[in-house]
Write a structure and sequence with these properties.
By secondary structure, the chain is α/β, with parallel strands linked by helices. The chain has a single domain, classed as Glutaredoxin. Helix content is 39%, strand content 22%. The protein has five helices and five strands. The chain has a five-stranded mixed sheet with strand order 1-3-2-4-5, with helices on one face. Helix 3 packs across helix 5. The longest helix has 17 residues. It is globular, with a radius of gyration of 16 Å.
Length: 125
Amino acid sequence: MERGENNNSRYDNDINNSEIHQILELSEKNFDSYIKSEKPILVDFWATWCGPCKFMLPVFDRLAKKYSSKVNFGRINVDDYQSIAVKYDVYAIPTFIIFTNGKITDRAVGAVGEKGLENLLEKYK
């Protein structure tokens, strides 16, 4: 490497990869438009105070990287958007719901781990 040359290729790859698997922050304004998409979306219903939700976040991120070409990934804070949580019968968190064309196609409740979520996603590969 020549003097003054910057070797950030690994860092650059990390930045590019993070752009590819963006996790959407869902709200009342955009929730319906994302769940009505033909491309399935896995929605993480979570809260800041929830320990199991914090445990599942890195798992959710890893799976977003792996499956982003086939499935969108989004998160919605149930404390901020309680009406959406109630509408979809989310009474325990974390709850993970896959929507396709506005309909629920799969659901997992609790800190199901990487394998538990991957089992839901396998059919969308």
